[in-house]
Specification:
Elements lengths: L2 H26 L8 H23 L7 H21 L2 H18 L2
Helix pairs in contact: 3-4
């Protein structure tokens, strides 16, 4: 099997599994059955937990040895918080914070 066919098959399997996982809750909880309380609770708590884990993951390798190691990250985190408080748009906050970080690491040489 060639590498191209193998890559296409892998992408197809990943796409099918992703679609299945996205549609599965709608198939399982359709109709008149109420959504279990634990599922509703997870739906409200998990987004915040995932965001907290992403923040910890992104900031885990900060070096405080010099100012270039930590200042861009701290300024970008503050930018994300301020943008989110200002616009209440998660995508805007993440893109703005990422752009701020990229600019700072390039300009602070």
């Amino acid at each position: 099997m060639s590498d191209r066919i193998y890559a296409i098959l892998i992408i197809g399997v990943i796409a099918a599994l992703t679609a299945l996982l996205r549609f599965l809750p709608f198939l399982v909880f359709r109709g008149q059955r109420p959504i279990p309380q634990v599922i509703s609770y997870l739906g409200t708590v998990l987004p915040y937990a995932v965001m907290a884990m992403l923040v910890v993951y992104c900031l885990k390798d900060i070096s405080f040895a010099n100012i270039h190691g930590w200042l861009p990250s701290v300024i970008s985190v503050v930018a994300v918080v301020l943008l989110h408080v200002w616009k209440r748009n998660t995508l805007f906050s993440i893109v703005g914070g990422t752009a701020c970080y990229m600019l700072l690491i390039r300009l602070m040489v």
